[in-house]
Write a structure and sequence with these properties.
two-stranded antiparallel sheet, alpha/beta, seven-stranded mixed sheet
Amino acid sequence: MAVILIMSCGAMGAALAQLLVLAGHRTLAELWAANSAGPAAERVSVVASVLPPSEATAFAAEFARCVRDAAAAKGTTAAAAAADEGDAEEKGLFLELNAVAPATSAAIAAQWFAPPGGGGGGEGVGDRWTYVDGCIIGLPPVFGDAARPSLDSLVHNPAVYLAAAFDVAAVSRARDLLTAGGWRVRVLDGGGEGGLVGATKALKMSYSSVAKGVMGLTTSAALSASSYSASTRDALARELAESLPGVAQFAERQMRNVVPKSTRFVGEMEEIAAYVGATTGADELAALWTGMAGLYSFVSRAKGNEKGDEIDSTLRSFGSRVSAELELRRQQQQQQQQKE
């Protein structure tokens, strides 16, 4: 049984932690606080960071500090502490699963988790912990029977991608542990033993640019059409259902999530902008995602006040309108099939 710290404040981390508990592991997410961070860092063998992008770097730095402080309190180095525990050959696993750009992941890895002699400026814990680059794609796990959840009753499970940063064997260890813990794990080539860190982050940034990009474009269209007139809004919903049914189905499911998730999306859009700018060299493409960050920032700033309630109500209403149009289209198709 592994003792695993799931550092998360959202639905995804909580649901993934639940899978690990069902598989017999112990999670210590509740122990990470100002007065218990040090003890938690000492007690765990695996850390999974599942945070808003803006918090990823700060948590990695705080975790590394706690590991160093714990070792110093014992009057020994982190490597010697590991040897004392009989676990010198098997380092802890730090799984960086946040939606950050490859460059951000590479910076975290180099600063705090590089192997001895590989950098870190004295701040790192690479002699005790190994860094695994990762990302999560999909919605949180869903159980067929939420009242009695079990690994056998999973009806949806997001994909967790892993890639090596410095130690290829560490990815295999992480894959085996997490797969046995109910996670759906896929391993990407890339990184490892001096290679390029960030393969999974590039995947996440590319995927999110589609998923959150469509959400942002639909949000802009829905707010604009709804503000102009109810007839414009209804016509837009109808046209999406008829000519872009995939987008319509997406809007039907996601419009209710825009306001609640907008704050987290701001940082993710900023990371996408950095990724796109670095990989394409095109400032114009990066500016697209800076603008998308601005859209989600506009929504986020309105949360908790009358304007935010108005935006949320407008988007939910549009989602319901689209849903009604999709249902009407389904009924029409059924009637046509019956005639044939």
